[in-house]
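Example A, followed by Example B.
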Amino acid sequence: MGKINIPSFLFLLVFFLCISASLSYGYTNITSCGTLTSNNEYRLNDTIVHPGGNCFNIQSNVLLDCRGFNITGAGNGMFANLGNGRNNITIQNCFINNWGSWASIYGLFTGELIINNTQFVNNARGIYLDKPGYNSIKIINTTSGGMNKLIYFNHSFSNQNIDLIQYSEIHLFNISNSNFSNHNSSHGAFMVDDSDNNIFININLSSQYLEFNYGADNNLFQNLVFNDVEINMKGSNNTLRNGGPIDRDIWFGDNYAANIENMSITSDINLNGRRGLTFRENVFLNGATLTFGGSESNITLDSNYWNITSSSGPLLLFPLTGTCNPANTSVICDYNPFFTSDLTSINSQVDEGVSLFSLSYAIPLFILMTSYFMF
């Protein structure tokens, strides 16, 4: 019996182990639309130009990797139908173009959905997710252009992580007790309908509007960046906190409470007889102030910063203009207001580790105000 060639044997062993591992992973190469069956990974190997109707019917436990290829529709149908009752689907690295008016991706299912590193271009709409039951939705590094709505969420689910960039409009309907974060939208509106007790963190909006419609109550928007954004707050007890600037009109619905806290405000706000509003620890820049009509009620001002020395009408900024008398219903008082003359005291408090606002906001605001009045 001949001797075993040890190097050749080891090479063959490693080779067959690699082949075995590759076969056991079991991904399937595809070049056309069709049904993606459960418990499989699919990799697109070419562009697809679909003549009409739906492209992919995706079942449970499927990963679709388009590998950067373009999947173009005929202006109708869906790029992906996620079906009813399915779960655990990942769609990544896709360029989705020219799909129909209902949705590019539509689903009524449970479990986890991940859409990663994907572009939506020239579609009528993007992602429409319906019915409760989602355990987790992650939409990451996903862009859109030339469409009405990138994401439409309908009916309640919770604990979501939404991370978007570029031309993205989000429309939430009947969503409660959910968490959304890291939404970055240029030319895309953010609309909240009939949705309660949600938290939105790190929201960046430009050149469009933020709207809470009637029935959207007790929602918190925190850590905001606005640029040329109109704000419409019709729902009750919604809160904008930390950020700004509020540089366009902000509208408040009749008899609906709202809270504006720790925001920079550069445009005059007309309260026009509104009720139940709270302004706390905001910075009014460029001479911006509040305009009253005289019939307002339950307006609370607390520790706001004003770069004006006084204001006529029913707004009373004390101690410069007198002493606030809570019994005097003809005036609105700011309790513990701050003025341009307080810049030195603000700097002193920051040096001592005590801030009128959170420390991360106090220092840049001081620098901004100092530059404003120097130049």
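Example B, a separate protein, is given below in the same form.
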Amino acid sequence: MNRASLPHVVIIGAGFAGLWAARTLTGKPVRVTLVDRNNYHTFLPLLYQVGAAEIEPEQIAYPVRTLLRSRRNVSYIRAQVDRLDLVERFLLCNGQRVEFDYCIIATGSTTNFFGTRGADRFAFVLKNLDDSVVLRNHILSCFERAAYCADRERRRALLTFVIVGGGPTGIEFSGALAELIRGPLRKDFPALSPKEIRVCLVESAARVLSMFDAKSSAYTSRLLEKKGVEVLCGTGVKELRPGRVLLSDGSAVETETVVWTAGVTGERIASLDVPLGRGGRLIVDETLQVPGRRGCFIAGDLAYVEEQGRPLPMIAPAAVQQGRAAAMNILRLVRGGEAVPFVYRDKGAMVTIGRNAAVARIGTREFTGFWAWVIWLVIHLMNLIGFRNKLFVLMNWAWDYIVFEKSVRLILPSCCTSPGAKGCRMRRCGR
């Protein structure tokens, strides 16, 4: 069959949902075009480790074209989508018009600041590789600057780190940062007093990790505090100012580093006219289609899907399942059938707190400690794309575990010229 005569499927986004949708459509009687502004797929669950100097950014990224090399019916366009029309069925990118018969919109999510004043200007985020490298640069630069700072108050502000959000990302980054500070940085900067270094985790809810039971939350708080992290629950962030965080209880923290992990919202395409659900996500029907737009699907973090009256979590396993389901429904439509409802299979959740410590939920059972940590390691290593990436991440983890040394403590000035490097605009990269 002539490829040009096959139905054309456009997938926007090479994240978990988009990539697994493309995999599902490989070798099927459709033409697939994958569009993404980056030429690589990022393994987001390990992004915080780049910011905490545990692994290199290229170890959690994999080239899209390499992934698609053997998939003959799938092509790739590196571009930002400027316009998407679900009525006329075309998109504009790089000044070109791309028409399609079916589409899967999987643009993922971006940081949600919940309207907090100053947060978009003065907080660091962890949503892409640029963000993580800028954050790593900044943290290491703070120690370098503090090492020769004679002003005590200024030095304390440089060595105070505030993480906003007690969800999985906030917990994992807090634990990793505490281990970085208490381990190699303490040895690298012996002149700095540990008493001047402060790591605060701010959570507006009554406890951290609210998706787990109270016992697991208490275990997590206890472990973080043992690592030297101050866990402030029931306290929100009122405003961010240059060098200062104002909390809802009226107190203030003098700091040069605020890392915002408190929430995410769907990353929408401006021209897309689809009703919004909670969290800035786009409402879809039970088959993941845009209501009234047959053959147009939304998958991953951008899709607002409820199960038992609650929205599905914005996590990688949900995105993978939705990407596969949307692709299978397109194949049903191509064959003249009807799309079937999406059913989410909850495989559990897990969060690492640091060395030998994690919390995990498999089915209805929750457990903590060493074996939860081992399961976390195995699951993340298995799902990381690329043999080379698996090997180097495993080597970094093994080196860190055996010799208590994080090997990626580099301040890379190249990040200061990276497109979209927020740290440079905020003048927080130490240059």
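On Example B: The first strand starts at residue 8 and ends at 12.
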